[in-house]
Specification:
Radius of gyration: 17 Å
Number of helices: 5
Strand content: under 5%
Shape: globular
Number of strands: 2
Strand order of the largest sheet: 1-2
Distance between the termini: 37 Å
Structural class: mainly alpha
Order of helices and strands: HEHHHHE
């Protein structure tokens, strides 16, 4: 149940941030290309997307995040600082996914919020009676559940063909 609550804590604010960014971009005259959905999917593209977004990304990115937090603990053990710097670094690293500034900002800012939640989950579950493995597992599950949203939106807004 914890993963469901943590996922909601990541998904709802991140998507509200995305909507606010879209509204701001529209008000400034930018097109909403940052939120475009492919018209069709092939089964191969769908399988690759599911593998990358639901399995590979949560496992690898959360592992890198845990390593980053481990290294940053040498500088400070304060949870707020660790969460903030982790969110900033991993959110900005996602900005490379966009080919325009609007797409970069539209992807990086909501991702910062999500990584703040993942970092918080990791820190909560890797202390006390739990260990770093439990923190990693809970953060990875939260990350994978969060990533269900874009895959679901793409599936709803697309047609799977051939």
């Amino acid at each position: 149940m914890y993963v469901a609550y943590a996922t909601a804590a990541a998904v709802i604010p991140a998507n509200l941030l995305a909507l606010l960014l879209a509204a701001g971009a529209t008000a400034l005259g930018y097109p909403l290309e940052a939120f475009s959905i492919p018209a069709t999917y092939t089964w191969g593209n769908l399988a690759a997307d599911v593998f990358l977004v639901l399995l590979f990304a949560p496992i690898v990115e959360t592992g890198l995040m845990a390593l980053f937090i481990f290294i940053m603990r040498a500088f400070s053990a304060r949870a707020v600082w660790l969460i903030g710097i982790t969110a900033l670094v991993f959110g900005l690293s996602h900005s490379i996914l966009g080919d325009t500034l609007a797409k970069q900002i539209g992807h990086a800012v909501p991702t910062m919020w999500a990584f703040a939640v993942y970092a918080g989950v990791y820190l909560v579950w890797s202390r006390g009676e739990h260990d770093a493995t439990m923190g990693y597992t809970m953060a990875t599950l939260t990350h994978a559940c969060y990533n269900l949203v874009p895959v679901g939106v793409r599936l709803i807004g697309s047609q799977v063909v051939g």
